[in-house]
Amino acid sequence: MEKYLIDTSEFVSVRGDRQNIRIRAAKEGLPVLLFLHGGPGVCDRHFVLKNQSRLAQEYTMVCWDQRGSGKSYTKDIEKQPLSVQTYVDDAEALLDLLRARFRTEKIIVAAHSWGTVIGTFLARRCPEKIAAYVAQGMFIDGSENELESYRFCVREAERLGDKKAMKALSGISPVNGRYPSDKAMMTQRNYLSKFGGGTYKKREGMLRSLLLPLLKTPEYTLADVVKYAKGGLYLSKKLWNDVVAVSFLDVTHLSVPVIVTQGEHDYNTPTKIASAWFDRLDAPFKKWISFAESAHSPIFEEPEKWGKEVSAALQEALGGQSKEN
Question: Could you name the CATH architecture of 6-140+218-323?
Answer without folding.
Answer: 3-Layer(aba) Sandwich (3.40)
